[in-house]
Amino acid sequence: MTGTFLRLDAFNNKKPGEVPMLFSEFKKKEVINLKNCQKLGKVCDFEFDECTGQIFKLIIPGENKWCGLFGSSDSNYVICYKDIKQIGPDIIIVDICI
């Protein structure tokens, strides 16, 4: 069987005390904007560097999408990783201007 596989080394290079997180766990968390306490939704996708495994951006379906499927991709919230302030057990806090 042949194919292309992505190796996410970021999960292997964790610091002591850090717990790896699966995407299936990550996308269950509610994303909340620190600036106005607005619930943005849940992560549906992310952009990452396939060589390093570093996540660059989180993608959250915009308000005009139904179940994250129908609607323009322009209505998505695209959040740079540097704007993530805290990842907790249930929520992800971001600091963005909308």
Structural write-up:
This protein is mainly beta. It is about 5% helix and about 30% strand. The protein is built from 1 helix and 7 strands. The strands form 2 sheets. The chain has a 4-stranded mixed β-sheet, with no helix packed on it. Strands 3-4-5 form a 3-stranded antiparallel β-sheet, with no helix packed on it. The longest helix is centred in the N-terminal third of the chain and has 4 residues, at about 25. The termini are far apart. Mean pLDDT is about 80; it is low at about 1-10.
Question: Summed up, what is this model?
Answer:
With 98 residues, the protein is mainly beta. The chain has 1 helix and 7 strands; from the N terminus they run αβββββββ. Strands 2-1-7-6 form a 4-stranded mixed beta sheet, with no helix packed on it.
Query: Within the largest sheet, what's the order of strands?
Result: 2-1-7-6
The residue ranges in which pLDDT falls below 50 over 5 or more consecutive positions are 1-11
Order of helices and strands: HEEEEEEE
Number of helices: 1
State the separation between the terminal residues, measured CA to CA.
Answer: 46 Å
Q: Round the mean pLDDT to the nearest integer and report it.
A: 79
List the defining traits of the structure above:
98 residues, mainly beta, four-stranded mixed β-sheet, three-stranded antiparallel β-sheet, 1 helix, 7 strands, globular, disordered N terminus
